[in-house]
């Protein structure tokens, strides 16, 4: 592989890695209240029951 191909490959990998790290750094976690968490759990339980009933 030529020198320009190696440089281009390293540059592409650097851009990809930089993008992934930037995305990880800018990601925000959800701050949910306990009420919201209970609603989510109830909804998931209902969906699980519906899926079991369909099978």
From TrEMBL:
The keyword Transmembrane applies. This is DUF2897 family protein. The chain crosses the membrane at residues 6-23. Keywords: Membrane, Transmembrane, Transmembrane helix. It holds the Pfam family DUF2897. It comes from the Bacteria. It comes from Colwellia maritima.
């Amino acid at each position: 592989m030529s020198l320009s191909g190696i440089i281009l490959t390293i540059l592409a990998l650097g851009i990809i890695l930089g993008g992934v790290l930037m995305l990880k750094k800018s990601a925000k976690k959800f701050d949910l209240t306990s009420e919201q968490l209970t609603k989510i759990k109830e909804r998931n339980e209902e969906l699980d029951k519906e899926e079991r009933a369909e099978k």
